């Protein structure tokens, strides 16, 4: 057996297969210039974080696609709010907790600009732009007149200096503004007293920092790597393409504008002869001629007119834009139509396919970041504060902690088909009515109370509607089908199987 035969008969896990798997580590001609540094994500964030953050903020303000993607990201991540549904067994206490929470959400913002669910939307936008957001608990006095003496203050990423990496006086390590103890737990955040880019807030040239205990701060960010301590902008992978595409569009628009300003060029036999429609000379001394609608001009002997015919952008301009924006959408993890608003090439199947994948990713962020890092700690702190202030008579607030956070409902392309599918799933026992109702973004107990109240009001007034709650309980949507043997002996309103 020759050497070639022995090499060809080697198993896939042999040396040849191993070399194929390690091809990315080779230093051959094609990969000779690919030598990335082996740096930790925290070192990269510490060195490039401030510039990356500044560019991301400018891009979202000045670039239409980035601004639209930011709003789409926030709208799908939190919508009109990720809302709690208490799991307390005592129905009366559960209703009391839910009502007090709903009333407190209007007082949650320390700046008084929005409610608790508006703060969620602001956190979502900060995650897109800066990759992180800080929420500080602000306890209030009883004389402040709040239902629960607690408010929330949002702090931007710039308030925690990336460059503050040192050893504290107590021996703890400070990394990118975050203080860690000997076993790696977060014990404090060293925030600036003033925003470094706010020129309206007069203060020191280099704002001093203040130490805030970690128990009073929530750090909301998505960790992409193990051990990552600061967030990265969600828009970061698409920033370069968006910036260069914006420059290209501006240059193309300016080129077309300049070309359109020149209607034509006139050649004269003698410079001193006046041109048709000649006006005063411009600042450079060159004569400019203008035309008016309906002008009939007789040219002098020897004069000639050549009209401008600027080059078009070409047939590949739109295709180039489409492919570039597809790459931008993939970098952002957002569907193409949410970034651009372009649905010309979309249909029901394509829209649903990309929305299913996109909503899987959004579901990860909703449950793993927003609910876990933001909503649950606020719920626990709010219950403790409400119990200590006497707003809730619950004794130990630990028993009232169980809660389910309900994300906003998804609006599908064809809601009728989805509702029919949900009804069939409930009838088959695949899912429960609670889960179906919660998928719409509502609390099932609140829906049941409203249905009961509607049914009582309809009965008291002697009204009858096709959609009356008392008439539709247990009703189901059955798709049309052909009659089958045995249907004649069954009640028309019941198609259950008989044994």
TrEMBL record:
GO molecular function: structural molecule activity
InterPro entries: Phage_lambda_portal
Bias type Basic and acidic residues, positions: 481-493
GO biological process, one term: virion assembly
Ranges where the record places region Disordered: 460-499
Protein name: Phage portal protein, lambda family
Species annotation: Roseisalinus antarcticus
């Amino acid at each position: 057996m020759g050497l070639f035969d022995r090499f060809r008969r080697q198993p896939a896990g042999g040396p040849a297969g191993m070399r194929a798997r390690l091809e990315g580590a080779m230093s051959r001609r094609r990969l000779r210039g690919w030598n990335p540094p082996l740096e930790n994500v925290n070192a990269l964030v510490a060195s490039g974080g401030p510039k990356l953050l500044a560019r991301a903020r400018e891009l979202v303000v000045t670039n239409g696609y980035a601004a639209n993607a930011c709003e789409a990201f926030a709208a799908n991540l939190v919508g009109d709010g990720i809302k709690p549904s208490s799991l307390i067994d005592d129905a009366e206490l559960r209703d009391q907790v839910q009502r007090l929470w709903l009333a407190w959400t209007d007082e949650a913002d320390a700046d008084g600009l929005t409610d608790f669910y508006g703060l969620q939307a602001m956190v979502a936008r900060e995650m897109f732009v800066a990759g992180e957001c800080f929420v500080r608990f602000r306890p209030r006095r009883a004389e402040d007149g709040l239902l629960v003496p607690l408010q929330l203050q949002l702090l931007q990423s710039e308030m925690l200096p990336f460059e503050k990496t040192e050893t504290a006086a107590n021996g703890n390590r400070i990394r990118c503004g975050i203080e860690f103890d000997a076993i790696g737990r977060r014990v404090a955040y060293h925030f600036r007293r003033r925003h470094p880019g706010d020129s309206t807030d007069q203060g020191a040239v280099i704002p001093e920092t203040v130490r805030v205990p970690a128990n009073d701060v929530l750090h909301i960010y998505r960790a992409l790597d193990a051990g990552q301590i600061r967030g990265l902008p969600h828009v970061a992978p698409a920033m370069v393409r968006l910036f260069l595409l914006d420059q290209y569009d501006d240059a193309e628009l300016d080129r077309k504008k300049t070309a359109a300003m020149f209607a034509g060029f006139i050649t004269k036999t003698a410079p001193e002869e006046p041109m048709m429609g000649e006006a005063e000379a411009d600042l450079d001394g060159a004569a400019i001629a203008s035309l008016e609608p309906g002008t009939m001009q007789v040219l002098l002997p020897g004069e000639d007119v050549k009209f401008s015919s600027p080059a078009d952008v070409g047939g590949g301009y739109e295709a180039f834009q489409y492919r570039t924006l597809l790459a931008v959408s993939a970098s952002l993890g957002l569907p193409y139509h949410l970034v651009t608003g372009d649905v010309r090439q979309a249909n029901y199947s394509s829209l649903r396919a990309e929305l299913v994948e996109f909503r899987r990713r959004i579901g990860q962020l909703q449950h793993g970041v927003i609910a876990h890092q933001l909503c649950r700690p606020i719920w626990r702190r709010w219950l403790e504060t409400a119990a200590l202030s006497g707003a809730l008579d619950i004794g130990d607030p630990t028993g009232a902690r169980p809660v389910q956070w309900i994300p906003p409902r998804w609006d599908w392309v064809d809601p009728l088909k989805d509702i029919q599918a949900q009804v069939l799933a409930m009838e088959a026992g695949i899912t429960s009515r609670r889960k179906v109702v919660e998928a719409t973004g509502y609390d099932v107990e609140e829906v049941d109370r409203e249905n009961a109240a509607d049914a009582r009001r309809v009965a008291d007034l002697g009204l009858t509607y096709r959609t009356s709650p008392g008439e539709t309980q247990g009703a189901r949507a059955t798709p049309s089908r052909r009659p089958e043997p045995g249907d004649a002996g069954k009640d028309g309103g019941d198609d259950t199987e008989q044994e």
